Amino acid sequence: MATMRSAFRSPVSMRTRFFVDELMRVLASVRLAAALAAGLGLLALAGILLPQLPGAARSDPVASAQWLDGQRGALGPAADWMYRLGLYDVFHSAWMAASFGLLALSVVACTGRRFAPTWRNVVHPVKAVPESFLLSSRPGVFRGPAADPVALERAMRRRHFHVERWSANGVEWLFADRYPWAQLATFVSHAAIVLLLAGALVTHFGAFTTRLFVAEGASAPVFPIGHAPAMNVTVASAAGSLDAHGRSLDARSEISVTTNGRTAKTCTITASQPCTWDGYRIRQAFFYSAGVDLQVRDTSDGRILFRQAVALTASREAPHVVVSDAGGRVLLDQVVAFTGSVDGVDGALLAIPGDTAPVWVGLAHPADGPALIVFQPGDGSQQRSLTVPLHASAPAGDLRFEFAGLETTPAAELPGLPAPGPEGGIPPVAQLAGGRLSDGSAAPPVLLLSGVGNRAVALHEGERAVVGNLEYQFVGQKPFVGLEVRKDRGEPLIWIGSAMLVLGLAATLWIPRRRIWARTDGDGLQMAGMAPKFADLGPEFEALAAESATAGPP
User: Fold this and answer.
1) Which residue in 27, 53, 330, 541 has a CA-CA distance of 20 to 30 Å to 384?
2) What is the SS3 assignment for 122?
3) What does the alpha-carbon distance between residue 266 and residue 277 come to, in Å, rounded to a whole number?
4) pLDDT higher than threshold 80 for residue 135
C-alpha cells in the first residue's frame, strides 16, 4: 500500500517541484529585475510628466469627474483611456503596486538562491587550493623570495586576519581570512530593499491621510460621524506670519486631540514638528489669516441666526476711495465692495456724509490702466460722470474723488448667510480689507458685506450694522489652519529598511572581505587573494612579503 501511494504521489511531487524551481529561476533572473526596475522608472517618469489627479479628488467621484472634464479639453478622447489605464494617478495605480510586488519577489528569490552557497563560503571557506591557483598569471597573484611562515602568520594576524597554517610535503601553507561576515552584508542590503518595497506597498494600500481646515477656536472630526473611535482635533490658538506671496512663515498652532469625548493629548505643532498620538501624525500644512467670525441676529426676537468662522479663500478687486469736500475735509475713506453694475461697470452705491445725493462708484479697466468711474445724479435726468486714474484725484461739483489704490481682497460667497428680502437673489459676498493679509499689511480689518441690501456694509472689528430686521456683527478676524492627519503602518518598515540599506552598503564598501592563500618553501613565496574589485591586494602582498622575507626584500 505504501509503495502504491508513493508511486501515485511521486509524479505530482515532481511536477510541483519542477514548477517551483522554474518559478524561482524566473523570479531570480537578473533580466527580470532589470526590466521591473526600468518599468518602475518609466512609470515614475509618466507620473512626473503627466498631470496627476489631485489628492482631494481621488476619493470624490464628482471632483474626479470635473477634473477629468478639464483634461478632455486638452487631450480629447485620449483622456478617458489614459484615466482608465491609471496614467492620471500613476503613484496609486495597480501598475505601480504590481511592479513593486514583483520586484520584491524577485529580490527575495535571488537572495534565497544565493544565500546557501554564500553561507557555506562564509562558515566553511575553501582553505586548501591547488598549486595552479597560486602559479596563475591572473590579477591578485604575488611571487617573492622565500619567507618565514611564522613571521608571515604574525604579519597576517597583525592585520586582523584569521590565519590557519599547516605543512605538507615540506611546503608551508597558510590561509588567511579577514571580515568573512562582511560578505553577508549584501543580504542585509537585499533585505532592506525588500522592506522598502513592502513599506511602499503597505503605504499604498493601508495608509490613512486626511486634511482638515480648522478655524482658531474650532474643532473638526478626523473620521466621519459614527466611526470608532471618535477623534476630533481642536485648534486652541494659531499664530504665524506671511511673506509677500502669502506663504506661511514660522506658523505654529496649539492643538488638542480628543477621542470619545476625552482629551488625549495637547501639543504645539508646526510644519516640521508634528504631534503624534496612537500612531497618527498631525502636522500643520499651512496657515491662513484671511478668516472672519461673523454673526447675524434677528432684532425682533434676539435669536442668533448665524454664527460661523468663514474662510475667505477667493479674491475680488476693490477700489480704495477717498472723498473730500471743497475745504479738503475727508468725508469718506474706505475700500468699496461692489454690489451691482451700471452700464457694464461693476460698482456700488455710496452714501457720503453731509451729501444727500448717493453716488455710484465703479471700476473700469481701460487700456491705460484701472480707473475709477463716478456717476452722480444731477438735476432731472442729467448725470455728471467722472473718470479718475489710479493714484489720482478729480473734482465733481463740491466734492473731490481720489482713487487711492486698488486692493485684491480675500472674499467668499456666503449662500447660507441670512439676508433681508426675498430668497433666490444674488448670494451675499464677504470681503476683508486690511487686517493681517498676505501682502504684509496690518491695517485694522474691515469686513465688507454685499448682497444684504441695496448698499454694501462696511464693519470694523466688533461693529454692528442693522439691515432690515437683521443685525450683522463682525466679531473679529479668525485665522485658519490647514492640518494633515496621517497614519502610515508602512513608515516603520521604510525607516528600518533605510537604516539596513545604509548599514549593508557601508559594510560592503568599507570593510570588504579579503582571503589570502600562501605557499612558501625554499624556492620562494607565492600568494593569491580574493577580494572585491575595488579592494587592491597588491600593497598588502608587498607589505606581508617585506615583513616575513628571509632573504631580503622582495
Assistant:
1) 330
2) helix
3) 10
4) no
